[in-house]
Each structure stands twice: as structure tokens, then as C-alpha cells.
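Troubleshooting log. The previous structure file for this entry was overwritten by mistake, so regenerating from the original sequence record. Sequence copied from the archived sheet and checked twice against the printout by T.R.
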Amino acid sequence: MSADDSSAVITAFLLRHTRLGQLDPEANIFAAGHVNSLFALQLITFVEKNFGIFVENEDLDLANFCSIGAIRRFVERKRAAGETEKA
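Regenerated output below.
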């Protein structure tokens, strides 16, 4: 999946599960008050299932999930490191 495809999938998820009308890829969704901590758990589950990666405890940094771009870069780093979902 290309970076553009990943961004599109992440954007579609956020738009489907929030009340956002439009979203800048680098806009901080938490700082803007668009999402809360409960939604963060949904977001992590979505990332794991849709991108086939496993989010470790040390990955639970808001910087990895604060924007579409941050999530895409996080997924790319995990995939490049070969850190796929654990069986």
C-alpha cells in the first residue's frame, strides 16, 4: 500500500468515526478536540487490523497518532522495521 493509499484509508476512518468535515493531514486531532482518549483505543485497533502491525507499549506516544501524517509515518516505520502483527 502506497503512502497516499495509507493516508486515504486513515482519513476515511477518521471521517467515518468523528464529526470532522475536512481534515488537514498534519492537523493534530487530539489538540483540536476532535477525538478523545477512548477514541484513541479504537484508532490503535484500526491501525493494527488495517495495516497488519502490532502497536507495542513503547509505541503508545501521542506523537504517533496525533494526525493522519503521523499515523502514516508510524505505520511506515513499523513496516520498514518488519514489526508486523503478532500471531
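The two ends are 21 Å apart (CA to CA). Archived copy saved in two places this time.
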